Amino acid sequence: MSIIENLNLVRKGIPNEVKLVAVSKTKPNEAIEEAYRAGQRVFGENKPQELTQKWNDLPKDIEWHMIGHLQTNKVKYIAPFVSLIHSVDSPKLLAVIDKEAAKNGRVVDCLFQMHIAEEETKFGFDYADLSEFLESGALAELRNVRMVGVMGMATFTDNQEQVSYEFRHLKEIFTKIKQRYFAGDAHFKEISMGMSDDYSLAIAEGSTIVRVGSAIFGGRVYSSK
Asked: Does residue 221 lie within any of the structural domains?
C-alpha cells in the first residue's frame, strides 16, 4: 500500500478530536511530501538536527513536533520553529527551553513526559518528582514555555492488558495534575500516548494525540551517512 493509502486507513481509526502526528523520523522528504499532499500537516521527529533540516526544506505550514529525547544542548536548533515538544523530562530541560524560546521571542508549548513503562530505559518524570517541581513554584518563573499536558510511552510488549493499564495510569496522572495545578488553565488538555502498534488502545483510554510512524510510512529508513 502507498503512504496515502496507509494514512487514510489510519485516519479512519482516529476520532476527529484526536490529533494525528505522522512520525517521519528517518524518512526522506519525498515521503513527507506524499503525506502532505494527502492533507497531513502535523509531523513528528526525534532528532533536532534532522527536524531542523526538514523544517528548512519543507512547506512552512507544517506543524513540527519534537517527540524524541531532547538534550539541553540541542534545544537551540528547534526553538525558533517547533510547535510542540512532547519530551520534557526534567526541570533543567524545561528551563533551557524557556531560555531559548525567549531568545526567539516565542512561547513554546510543551508536554511533561511521564515514566509509565516497566522498562528502565524510558525517560520521564514520576508523579512524585513532578509534584515536587510544581509545588516549588519554579514553573511560574518560566514565561516562555506553556505546559499543555502530558506524554508517555507504554512498555514494548504484546500484553495489551498491560499497555492499556499503563495508558490508563497516564490518564489518571493527567487528571490529578490538571485538578491540582492547572485547574483554571484551558490549554492544559493534551495526553500524548499511543504509537503504530497501540494507538487504538491509547484512544480508548483517553489519548488526545497519537504518534504514528510505521503504520503510515512503513519500516524505518536509516541514512547511509
From this structure: no
Q: Provide the number of structural domains found in the chain.
A: 1
Mean pLDDT of 166-192: 98
CB atoms within 10 A of CB 158: 7
Amino acid sitting at position 209 = I
Phi, psi for residue 213 in degrees, rounded to 5: -115, -75
CATH code for the domain of 144: 3.20.20.10
Arithmetic mean of pLDDT, 102-114: 98
| Residue 109 covered by a domain | yes
At CA 60, angle to CA 57 and CA 61, rounded to 5? 140
Q: What b/e sequence results for 3-17 when a residue is b if at least 16 CB atoms lie within 10 Å of its CB, and e otherwise?
A: beebbeebeeebeee
Asked if residue 171 belongs to a domain, the reply is yes
pLDDT at position 224: 40
Measuring CA to CA, how many Å separate 18 from each of 10, 53, 160, 193, 194? 12, 27, 21, 11, 11
**CA 10 – CA 202 distance, rounded (Å):** 14
Q: What is the pLDDT of residue 223?
A: 47
Q: Is there a domain that residue 193 lies in? A: yes
The residue range of the domain holding 101 is: 3-216
Whole-model pTM above 0.85?
yes
At 122 the pLDDT is 65
pLDDT band at 225 (very low <50, low <70, confident <90, very high): very low
- Categorize the per-residue pLDDT at 121 as very low, low, confident or very high, splitting at 50, 70 and 90: low
77, 98 Cβ separation under 8 angstroms: no
Half-sphere exposure of 155 (CA within 13 A, CB side): 17
